[in-house]
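ESCALATION

Customer reports they have been waiting on this structure for their group meeting. Please prioritize. Original submission:
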Amino acid sequence: MYASIDLFAGIGGIRKGFENAFGEDISTVFVSEWDLHAQKTYKINYKDEFEISGDITKIDEKDIPKFDICLAGFPCQAFSMAGKRMGFEDDYKGMCRGTLFQDVVRICEYHKPKVIFCENVKGLTIHDRGRTFKVIKRAFEQIGYTVYDKVLNSKDFGVPQNRERIYIVAFRNDIDSSMFEFPEPVNSDTCIRDILEENEVSVKYYLSTVYVETLKKHKARHESKGNGFGYEIRDLDGKAGTIVCGGMGRERNLIIDKRLTNFVPVTHIKGEVNREGIRKMTPREWARLQGFPDDFKLELADTHLYKQFGNSVTVNVIEAIAKEIRKVLEDGK
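Update from on-call: job pushed to the front of the queue and completed.
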């Protein structure tokens, strides 16, 4: 049995991937997530006997139970000012003060788990000309870990979403991790059609005629300036773009769905419901784009759910990496 902790847990996507890979052989002993709405979705889907902890910076590492695996999808924003405020040195204690990443290192330096697993945006690898990423890897090495990293794309692992992320796996040095390899693509053939709701969806997901015109004008304005911003209608036989937590996230992944039979609005809209079948994907469809199973409960308002899935991870990719981690843990003792 491996004990794990879930830091910056969000709605538990990394945990879900590891539980899929380890089955009964993994148990979560500590969870930290400061966003209250994310906490609600987490609690609905995971029935732990302990409370979710909030701000990780306020938690003493000594108060965290002993664990073997650290899961940490630490926020990329933690590094937004780091390179500008102080020069990079290969010393996390001097460099990363005040960042949330430092808390991962602080906790793992004290507990010395077998494995540290992190996920972040691809841009982290080139932030401040690559120095930020160098510091992160060096920090793990300094506390006794062998570090592996690779950019993987969700669309190569059974979900139709073009989403590149950097994955970091660090094994404690007394574990022979020389056999570790990141997983190879396994199922690149999925398309948006595969994740669509089976039945007609609510009219509330269909855009109004006025909104469609607004989006068209907005896109035309940007195109006239040579910019690529604007709404996008995705081919059902193609892939979705990266889903993100806000802004144009939904409008960049519109689809045509002609199954609507009742065009009477259920929310206040300008104009009428468009007759072209243009709609946003539903939160359940976003959940599927991230590899969450259909028994994952979605009980909060759509606004929160879109943000949560946009911020989350692709479970399929996590599971594939976790299986490779498990091989090392079982063979490299």
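Sent to customer with the following note: The domain at 2-188+310-331 is CATH 3.40.50.150 (Rossmann fold).
Escalation resolved.
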